[in-house]
Amino acid sequence: MDKPKVVILGAGYGGLIASRELEKILSEGEADVTLINKHDYHYISTQLHKIGAGTASDHKVALHIPDLLKTNLVKFKKAVVSNVDFNDKNIVLDNGETLEYDYLLIALGFDVDTFGIPGVEENSFKIRSFRSSKAIQNHITKEFTAYKEDQDPSHLTFVVAGAGFTGIEMVGELVDKLPKLCKQYDIPVKETRIINVEASDSILPFFDRKAIDFTTAYLKNSGVELMTSTKIVECKKESIALDNGLQIPARTLIWSGGVRANKLLEKWNLQLVKGRIPVDEYLRVKGLDGVFCVGDASLFAKEDQTALPATAQVAIQQAQTCGPNIAATIRGEALKPFTYSHKGTVASIGLKVAVGNVFGVKMTGLFAALMKQVVEARYLFVLGGPVFMVKEILNLNPKKGSTQTVSSR
């Protein structure tokens, strides 16, 4: 009898943690498990803003996938998925290769949503992946070099669109990084501008008023220009137009204004709701045999019928349930319903400052920043255990893999 074939699409939080769960549960020879990802590295998406600003080393954020798979139970395949035939249960790769599956886990990450604003797709930088974030870092360095040549202030004007979680974290990293670059290039810090544009009337939605006020005061004291209740209506290569009529001379727009489910899903003849795949209480895709979905691609309705947000915390918890459920399905055992438990949220504002609420405890400043470090360390623990976590923190793990970067927008 042929072993059941399990294919996992995507090695983000959901796909990688589900793979690790299957490694723990399945016996050797019980199933053929293949993890497919377009890169051979897994990037910690909650730290991409650090790559964008150049405040974290590449190897701290991009981890070599084969090194994270501890056994031979999960095979890694570097490839791009072109199509999925849910009737014949096969997957077509962009090189023409076809893989069959008995059980499929869709764990594809998010796409950036630019809402059709003219010029944003073409001329802005996105915090979307390791490579796109690295492009931000390279661009910032080039802008400092260009300023030394012509003293055009637009080179040193950095606009971040969106004052949600990612946008504020990006702004915080710029607050830390730009003075260091100014010292390196012998440019006065006062020549730089950091502008944060937010369409709503407040920064950090879903945070409490104390956190919002603390963050607002900290950023303003750091020289950041906060523009709330303001929309970007056009982005050109050398200027950004706002809905209040203001034109900002700037060559850098970092877009964190919104995300959406992966556009690839729209090509697969799936029944989508707001671009995402509805799943049942066991994280199975409704109406499809042997197909599961977790993370940004999934639409899981809570008891009040509202959908869980597309966050790393949700993806990790879903994967910790979905992996065992796939194994249980293979064995003909009972599945476990998914229950989400919100642990809290911490937003960093640079290295030494953060705001958050963890298990109901509200925190700001240095203590919150330390808690952010704990949260990041905990993910390393979940991913690879205590030894892996300590080695990563102490920079003792050998660094492999390829993280070629791009320099375009």
Oligomer type: single chain
Number of H- or I-type helical stretches: 10
**Do you know the CATH topology of the largest domain?**
FAD/NAD(P)-binding domain
- Bin the helical content: 25-40%
What does the main sheet amount to?
5 strands, parallel
Spatial sequence of strands, sheet with the most strands: 5-2-1-9-21
Average pLDDT taken over every residue: 94
**Rg, Å, rounded:** 22 Å
- Structure summary, number of beta strands: 25
EC number: 1.6.5.-
Keywords: Oxidoreductase
Protein name: NAD(P)/FAD-dependent oxidoreductase
Organism: Robertmurraya yapensis
Structure overview:
With 409 residues, this protein is of the alpha/beta class. It folds into 2 domains: 188 residues, 3-Layer(bba) Sandwich (FAD/NAD(P)-binding domain); 139 residues, FAD/NAD(P)-binding domain. The protein is built from 10 helices and 25 strands. It has a 5-stranded parallel beta sheet, with helices on one face. A hairpin with a 4-residue loop joins strand 6 and strand 7. 40% of the residues are buried.
Quick synopsis:
This protein is an alpha/beta fold and 409 residues long.
List the helices and strands and how they pair.
Elements: E1 5-9, H1 13-25, E2 32-37, E3 41-43, H2 48-53, H3 58-61, E4 62-64, H4 65-68, E5 74-78, E6 81-85, E7 90-93, E8 98-100, E9 103-106, E10 111-112, H5 120-123, E11 125-126, H6 130-150, E12 157-161, H7 165-185, E13 193-197, H8 209-221, E14 225-227, E15 232-235, E16 239-242, E17 247-249, E18 252-255, E19 259-260, E20 277-278, E21 291-293, E22 298-299, H9 312-331, E23 344-348, E24 354-358, E25 361-365, H10 366-393
Parallel strand pairs: 1-2, 1-9, 2-5, 9-21, 11-18, 12-13, 12-18, 13-14, 20-22
Antiparallel strand pairs: 3-4, 6-7, 7-8, 10-19, 15-16, 16-17, 23-24, 24-25
Helix pairs in contact: 1-9
